[in-house]
Amino acid sequence: MYKIGMRLIEAQDGFFLARRPRKDSPHTTAAYRRDLAGVTALLAADLGCAAGDLDLSAVTSTSLRSAFGAFADTHAKSSVLRAWSTWNQFLTFCVAEELVAGNPMAAVARPRTPPLTPKPLRGEQTPEDLLTATAGGGGHGRDPWPERDVLVLALGLITGLRSTEMRELTLGSLVGRPGERRLHVRGKGSRERSIPIEEPMERIVADYLASCRRRFPRAPKGTSAPLLLDRHGEAIGRGGLEYLVRSCFRSSGVHDRVPAGASLHALRHTFATRLAEDGANASEIMALLGHASLATSQNYIEATGREQRAAAAVNRTYQALARLVERERG
Known about the structure:
With 330 residues, the protein is mainly alpha-helical. 56% of the residues lie in helices and 4% in strands.
């Protein structure tokens, strides 16, 4: 039985309070809050009351099915799946706290989890073409900053960082002695990993930091200061980072080699795909990319195998061989 008089918003506050020891990243917490708030607003609209006045007892399988149906009308499949997971975790917490007798999310349909399909940049030389053209600084408007643009691309192509991971890097994230540098990264679920970088990447970082000192001589220099800056000397935002990468694709002439729906993440997928092509096993890919599941890393190896088979199948000699076989059979 539901706890009498418990408002839904109070239960959600308790959920976030209980998660504090997990040390979720700000990005994760913000996503959870959006998912809870979005569906809560639809629940309230359907029941004709303010979201802040909604009682926990009103959250039933029937009301949730209606709210998630409305949510699905205006959101992508991936967003619906993430919101379903958030609400499932929240209501599981409510069960554990004896706020509700059971979790009604079992009665709410959810999209099937789409299989991971890596979306690396197309073309064997595309990453090199992209880096070379960007380093030249052409086509980037009135104030080119090739040192920063190359660093962002390299962080994706050489270390496989996600957008959030890049934006959370600080000057203290680069650790170790020259020649033995590592990049300390805090990833999804607050999982930390350390990625080794080689001397060329060290030089890219050094060139970028030198350009920052020239542009912003008064910028903070402590270890907690952000590594990646925008053109005003502030920490670069999510939209700014995505725009930067898309601009590099266009100005480098490789925009037609970027898979549909992929942008900055195409750099990470290129990194992972090349690891698989060069013989890295699933455990190594998992450690370097910060995957939570070994199965996710294995997908890159399997996808690479399918792509190699597909590439081999278009060999023109196969066409001649097929005609020969047909003749022999005839």
